[in-house]
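User: My notes are a mess, but here's the protein and adenosine-5'-triphosphate's SMILES. Can you give me a structure?
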Amino acid sequence: MPVSTRSQFRNPHHGLKEKLKELTLLYEQQKQTSASLRNSHSNPQDNVEQNVIRVNTIPHLINSTVTTTFVLPEPTSEDAKENFAVGYGGMVELENVVGGESRILVFVRVRPVSKKEKEIGSRCCVKITNRRDVYLSEFANENDYLRLNRIRGRHFTFDASFTDSATQQEVYLTTTSELVEAVLQGRNGSVFCYGATGAGKTYTMLGTLENPGVMVLAIKDLFGKIRQRSCDGSHVVHLSYLEVYNETVRDLLSPGRPLVLREDKQGIVAAGLTQYRAYSTDEVMFCSVLVMALLQQGNQNRTTEPTRANETSSRSHAILQVVVEYRVRDSSMNVVNRVGKLSLIDLAGSERALATDQRTLRSIEGANINRSLLALSSCINALVEGKKHIPYRNSKLTQLLKDSLGGTCNTVMIANISPSILSFSETQNTIHWADRAKEIRLKVSDANEDLLPLPEIENDQAKLILELEKENRNLRIQLAKQQQKLLTLEAQSLAAHSSPTPPSANSLSTPPTSAQPTDKRRTRSSFLAGTFFTPESNKKGAELAVRTLQRTVKALESEIERMKKDHSLQLTQKDDLIHKLSHKGGKQAVDEVGKRVVTRGGLRPKETNNGELKSPCHRFRSPVASTAKKRSFWDITTTNSPSAATLNGRKTRSHAISEPTTAPPPRSSMLLQV
Ligand SMILES: Nc1ncnc2c1ncn2[C@@H]1O[C@H](COP(=O)(O)OP(=O)(O)OP(=O)(O)O)[C@@H](O)[C@H]1O
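Assistant: No problem, the inputs look usable. Here's the predicted complex:
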């Protein structure tokens, strides 16, 4: 084990009252939480959407064709998130940053009792009393008959504790999802699993095909979020996967010679490490599928061996690093480059070395694993004690984790434990270790943001773009004003045309063609288009309005001309008639007929200076209408006569015209309505 700690259990009766108070308080809190959960949400599992990604062939990267089905429960389901936040996340967030300093968040996860442990009938020594507390019971040795029934135990409190039934999504959402969000904003984040061999570290980090772990869920979430934001700027994702085995660093994506660690501006880097990059959104989409396959491939390359505690024990520490570079232009056209790094680490399990162990490869591996974990413990102790010198250089693992432990990074540790009494001492060590890690203070991580200096040409172009944009804005405003003017004019003319005027005047104001209603419709639509739609439609609308106005003016002019002609014709005809009537009746009779007919139209005839009758509507009536009226006038005169006569043929008989003066008016009125 990395840290040898003596049992520090207190007397269980010590401070019993305080403990009772604390527990009562916690019980009340839990009751409230579960009540609110019951009220507002259903089971989070119900809300988790099942998402299946099928990877068929990944060209160039994987030698053999991989056909894998990943069943990915959707971790970003809002309801599920909310549920977990009530239980874990919200609480964690509140306590994470204190006084400009943040601390490592520590979580504990208990794995289910294994088949082997069940068969042996081993007792359980771990109990999760609420969402934060772990109660570790120590049973007396079976041979110690005096203390056989005495149970000693101790409570430990962590940021969250997961029972054996906690799902992978719960674990991911509570521990890592916030970190993923922070990485996209240019902050660094690290998650590492620590625990004894067979405690469930690889299950938590990688998971299985049916239940993918934190690594897979984090990457899926990350790529999903990038896809959502791809319109804001450009993202580049770099991905690498390495392992530290027997104090050598190896590339898991393209295995080969061991890699050398170097320190540069970015921190410790493995020289020659393969990095996969995805630039565009499509590539990122493809990459999310690819990454799953890469992880599978990398894990196949990872060193695993069966041990006493675990059939597939990982004999190395695996580190998956995802670097997200995000470029965006700020309001003054500067390029802002944000870089966030997410490190997901699956540590190898610590294992007790038996006295009988030979110097086999397994024991050498175990010794190296323990050495690196011991180095990790030393770093943690030095950090907690606030020492100036932190011994990162003691192992490859601590060199690689330097950023995560002592730098500006959001760090999460998940301590995996077995519930079985058979692993009591390992569990105890892990819990003590985790309890100590809680005290590590980290600097609050700022966003890794750089203002990229632009080359001179690009700078000029940026300025030019700004100027053009300004000019364009001004032109748009001017155009809008002009259009507004035109539209006002159009609206005024339309209003003038549609204002209540005598019917005859209305009919006169429109062109004397059958296309009249179509024109009207067009004019109205152009008005709307000009008001609400594109500048082109505005312009069209204004042009149409002008054309309509011109047409109306022309129509009016021709109307006036026609009216003049009609009027002179009427005068000559009237003179003719008077001349003819002067032989038989008199001028009086003609005037009487004229009066009656025009009055039916609703207007009183006016008397001209020379005493002639004149219709008041002559100025506005359309030629068609005036001709019809004229005809009906003459028709009246002819139908009243027993023998039909026409004006054109000048066959009118004098008695037929003079008849209305004596005949009753209704008959002529009826005929006028025809
Ligand atoms: N939460 C869990 N739910 C179901 N099965 C689990 C869980 N945690 C662990 N297991 C199972 O327990 C076994 C050991 O787990 P795992 O391999 O993850 O341990 P480990 O800590 O990574 O061990 P090592 O350090 O030796 O690699 C595996 O078969 C795994 O499927």
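Residues 1-12, 37-95, 501-535, 584-674 have pLDDT under 50 and may be disordered.
User: Great, I'll file this with my notes.
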